[in-house]
Amino acid sequence: MALKARHGWSTGELSSAITMYYVFGAGLLFFVVGPLFDRWGARIVVTVGTVAMACGVVALTLLTRPWQIHAAFGVMSLGWATMSAAAINIIVAPWFDRRRGLALSWAMNGASAGGVVIAPMLVLLISRFGFSAGLPTAAALMLAVLLPVVTLMLRPKHPDEHDMADFQSASIKPPSSAATSTNEGPEFHLGAVLRIRPFVMTSIPFALALTAQVGFLTHQVAFLSPMIGTIAAGWAVSLTTFAAVAGRIATGFVLDRFNRRAVASLNFIVQAFGLGILTASAEQSALYLGCLLFGVGVGNATSLPGLIVQQEFPKQHFARIVSLVVAINQFSFAFGPTLLAQLQHAEGTYTAALLVCLVMEIAAALVVLSPAVVRRHGTASPTLLVEPPRRV
Question: Does 207 share its domain with 329?
């Protein structure tokens, strides 16, 4: 909105740049970020991403032509990719053995809380100092906070003996030698990974569920406002957000005791129930209940893929595989808002759109429980990642 007011550019021009931002970010996750984390470690990669995000934010104040916003968003997408859900999984999950689900749920909630704080702060800075000064101020604050934290808190690529002693005394398991070395175990081949059933049956259900989730959340206020008013719709959004945080924390406490695919399936079913209530009733109490049930699964939909990948795939390839899953998810859910908008425009109501979301949630709940994927020990054979020998 600030760019539109500042330059008078059309909503279509700005929307295309935002779509490019998400698609380019997905491409970076798919091809670049995982290998970078493997090669350089979290400390260097996140530092580069932080600087890139700051440069992109400052570049927004220097725009004079519509095409330049694509360049600025492209730089910002590099920063996003290095600090996304995939990056959080890569940084946090390998260090934990017991309570891994709980650790990741708290880390994801921290990221969500950052989003709650940063958006109002940007509005305040822009309103107080203006667009040209507000964004550079925000970028400077980001660098002042994140760079020391990254330098002091993020572990290097290979933990030393002191690190291992600290983590063992805290009942946390550091990455094994297999997790920190790409020279041991099966060699990583992208084509082989994309073909194996466990990967497909992880990517597809979460892509479906997140497309439905992002689509609904984008249109939530537009759907609710005509029935219960804008203020009540705002409260429903707040209830959804609260349920997302609470649901992720509650799931984190129990997740490590159950099959993670079963937990994911239940998560999608709960969201489907919420969508069913929203579709069937216009009563305010029912709409609140539907938003509550849907919200319970919102946070888990982003934290569960990494936990499933860590359980079922070789540890030394965790960074690359979780980046692939998150990239596919992002590419899919980038089109969720447009899908629901088209369905609403065609029907004049959100009924068909919500039913499509409900079907996607149910399909995700079934696919994620594919009997060929759920194994007794929950681990994919490491040989599945090795490209089969070619005949000569």
Answer: yes
Q: DSSP string spanning 240-289?
A: HHHHHHHHHHHHHHHGGGS-HHHHHHHHHHHHHHHHHHHHH---HHHHHH
Residue 32's pLDDT is 81
* Residue 381 located in a structural domain: no
- Domain-located, residue 321: yes
Could you tell me the CATH number of the domain that includes residue 22?
1.20.1250.20
Q: Torsions phi, psi of 384, nearest 5?
A: -65, -20
The answer to whether residues 57 and 160 belong to one domain is yes
User: Environment class of residue 257 by beta-carbon count within 10 Å: exposed (0-12), middle (13-18) or buried (19+)?
Assistant: exposed
- Please state, in angstroms and as integers, the Cα–Cα distance from residue 151 to each residue in 29, 41, 46, 128, following that order: 23, 12, 10, 31
Domain count, the chain: 2
**DSSP for residue 181:** -
Q: Are 278 and 350 in contact (CB under 8 A)?
A: no
302 within a domain of the structure (yes/no): yes
Specify whether 15 is located in the same domain as 163. yes
Q: How does pLDDT run across 224-249, given as a tens digit for each residue?
A: 999 999 889 889 988 998 899 889 88
Q: Where are the alpha helices (DSSP H) in the chain?
A: 2-7, 11-28, 34-40, 42-59, 66-82, 85-92, 100-129, 131-153, 161-169, 190-195, 197-228, 230-254, 260-280, 284-296, 300-312, 318-333, 336-347, 351-367
Cα–Cα dist 283/277, whole Å = 10
Cα–Cα distance measured from residue 40 to residue 251, given in angstroms and rounded to the nearest whole number: 32
Q: Which of 161, 119, 128, 92 is nearest to 1 (CA)?
A: 119
Let me know whether 140 and 204 are in one domain: no
Distance set, CA 209 to CA 70, 185, 212, 324 (Å): 28, 33, 5, 17
Amino acid type, 336: G
What pLDDT digit, counting tens, does each position of 99-158 carry? 777 777 777 777 766 666 776 787 788 888 888 898 899 999 999 999 998 888 876 654
CA pair distance 129, 336, nearest whole angstrom: 35
What is the DSSP secondary-structure string of 320-376?
A: HHHHHHHHHHHHHHTTHHHHHHHHHHHHSSSHHHHHHHHHHHHHHHHHTT-TTT--S
Residue keyed to tokens 């002091």: 152
